[in-house]
């Protein structure tokens, strides 16, 4: 499906370094692996049944920071994002509101594009919906059946009819547990809440994930060779889409921490079951949960601060983005109006300092000086995306008198636009 327009980025002198991140799977810091000059980046996209809230925005802005750092370090980025445009929560919301599920998805996806564009998030090279990917997902499910990694669970209804659903047999998958590092108890605590069905009769082990759901009356379904008429389970969509567009062993899989288990665990295990050990991502980046008044912000709870609502109220998207950047991606935090007011004030100070230094005749030549602000911001971001630290560097430069010589080779607006995605 179409993506959204790319934001402008002013070229900066010199180069940053390939960023180091905290990899969830190894619980250690790792520099991202760039292969033949290219890094494959995948992020789990939205389920389009409600508008983008600050939790989604935080996840996508974090991945955007990573993409910007990779580009600034001279890497090519292949960036892919899915859209879960058919799944239970979307269908349930459409039924509740009496609208067609396709119309709901179409309008929410467009709102998401507009929000991402306003927040100056670099668009994916491929924004890929599930509905347009049924064939390639079905191909993987079929292949899992053929290699004996999947099995059927009967679903005879009251009339004795009904096709089988398909599940992955985890007992044969040695890699299971490696991505999340969760104990069985930790898995049990979240599995059912996050779309799992531990107690489904006929499953071989409690955590076996649903690969393909045979059609139920009133639900959308597709015909696929060798499979019951039906639709894909959740995790297999990201397994199949990521590998199709990025190949195996791509650099990094991203999303919120709510996806560590089961979603990213299962996506990885399914890919390895088909394509061999370690076939999925080489590392994992997870955004901590953003909340409101002490609770995780979520569409199902309805405690939402929406990007589109703030935009409609006339809020500057740069101020919204600056609130997100003021928090480190691995620290959970709550949205507050005070944080937004602080971001507005900070943006004002930066704009004022930029206006004073933009036309300064003493502006330095375009050779970056390591001690300057540009180098400092680059180092902070390459260090596990330390955006709060990067903002402090900029504040400190202003507090020291905003001397253009100390910018280190580029005007403030270019540093901020290209590395942080903010327009001054
Ligand atoms: N479509 C699936 C992924 S394949 C999904 O999780 N969709 S979502 O709309 O629920 O979430 C979209 C993205 O935002 C996911 O990466 C999710 O981890 C992230 N996310 C959701 N809620 C929050 C939150 N409160 N804080 C931070 N990130 C969040
Ligand atoms: Zn996903």
Q: State the order of secondary-structure elements, H for helix, E for strand.
A: EEEHEHHEHEEHEEHEHEEEHHEHHHH
SS class: alpha/beta
Please give the domain count. Answer: 2
Helix content: 25-40%
How big a fraction of the residues is strand?
5-15%
The poorly predicted ranges are none
Please describe what this structure looks like.
With 424 residues, the chain is α/β, with parallel strands linked by helices. The chain has 2 domains: 20-312, Rossmann fold, CATH 3.40.50; 337-420, Anticodon-binding domain of a subclass of class I aminoacyl-tRNA synthetases (Four Helix Bundle (Hemerythrin (Met), subunit A)), CATH 1.20.120. Helix content is 39%, strand content 14%. The protein has 13 helices and 14 strands. It has helices spanning 54-72, 88-97, 101-118, 134-146, 184-191, 234-246, 260-275, 307-312, 317-325, 337-358, 373-382, 387-399, 412-420, and strands at residues 20-23, 28-31, 38-43, 76-83, 126-129, 150-153, 165-168, 210-214, 230-232, 252-256, 283-287, 290-292, 295-296, 333-334. The strands form 4 sheets. It has a 5-stranded parallel β-sheet with strand order 5-4-3-10-11, sandwiched between helices. Strands 6-7-8-9 form a 4-stranded antiparallel β-sheet. Strands 13-12-14 form a 3-stranded mixed β-sheet, with helices on one face. Helix 4 (134-146) packs across helix 6 (234-246), helix 6 crosses helix 7 and helix 11 packs antiparallel against helix 12. The longest helix is centred in the last third of the chain and has 22 residues, at 337-358. The radius of gyration is 23 Å and the shape is globular. The two termini are 31 Å apart. Bound molecules: 5'-O-(N-(L-cysteinyl)-sulfamoyl)adenosine and zinc ion. Residues 44-47, 55-56, 58-59, 82, 84, 238, 255-256, 258-259, 287, 289-290, 296-298 line the site of 5'-O-(N-(L-cysteinyl)-sulfamoyl)adenosine.
């Amino acid at each position: 499906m179409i993506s959204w327009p790319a934001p402008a980025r002013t070229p900066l002198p010199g180069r940053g370094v390939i960023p180091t991140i905290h990899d969830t799977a190894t619980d250690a810091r790792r520099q991202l692996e760039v292969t033949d000059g290219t890094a494959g980046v995948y992020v789990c996209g939205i389920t389009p049944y409600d508008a983008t809230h600050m939790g989604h925005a935080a996840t996508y802005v974090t991945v955007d920071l990573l993409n910007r750092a990779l580009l600034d370090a001279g890497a090519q980025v292949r960036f892919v994002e899915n859209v879960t445009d058919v799944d239970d929560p979307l269908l349930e919301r459409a039924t509740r509101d009496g609208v067609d599920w396709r119309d709901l998805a179409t309008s929410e996806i467009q709102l998401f594009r507009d929000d991402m564009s306003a927040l100056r998030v670099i668009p994916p090279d491929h924004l890929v919906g599930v509905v347009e990917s049924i064939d390639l997902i079905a191909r993987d499910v079929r292949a899992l059946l053929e290699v004996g990694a999947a099995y059927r669970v009967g679903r005879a209804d009251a009339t004795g009819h009904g096709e089988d659903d398909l599940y992955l047999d985890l007992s044969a998958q040695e890699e299971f547990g490696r991505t999340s590092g969760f104990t069985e108890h930790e898995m049990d605590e979240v599995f059912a809440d996050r779309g799992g069905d531990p107690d489904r009769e006929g499953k071989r082990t409690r955590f076996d994930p649903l690969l393909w759901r045979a059609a139920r009356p009133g639900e959308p379904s597709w015909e696929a060779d060798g499979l019951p008429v039906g639709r894909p389970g959740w995790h297999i969509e990201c397994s199949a889409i990521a590998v199709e567009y990025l190949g195996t062993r791509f650099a990094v899989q991203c999303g919120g921490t709510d996806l560590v288990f089961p979603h990213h665990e299962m996506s990885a295990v399914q890919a390895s079951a088909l394509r061999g050990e370690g076939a999925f991502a080489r590392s994992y980046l997870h955004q901590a949960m953003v909340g409101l008044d002490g609770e995780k912000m979520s569409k199902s709870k309805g405690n939402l601060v929406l990007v589109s609502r703030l935009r409609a109220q006339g809020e500057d998207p740069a101020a919204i983005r600056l609130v997100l950047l003021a928090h480190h991606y691995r620290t959970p935090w709550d949205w507050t109006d005070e944080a937004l007011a602080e971001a507005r004030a900070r943006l004002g100070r930066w704009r004022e300092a930029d206006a004073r230094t933009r036309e300064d005749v003493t502006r330095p030549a375009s050779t970056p000086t390591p001690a300057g602000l540009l180098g400092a911001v680059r180092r902070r971001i390459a260090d596990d995306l330390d955006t709060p630290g990067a903002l402090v560097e900029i504040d400190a430069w202003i507090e020291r008198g905003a001397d253009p010589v100390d910018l280190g080779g580029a005007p403030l607006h270019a540093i901020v636009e290209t590395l942080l995605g903010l327009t001054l």
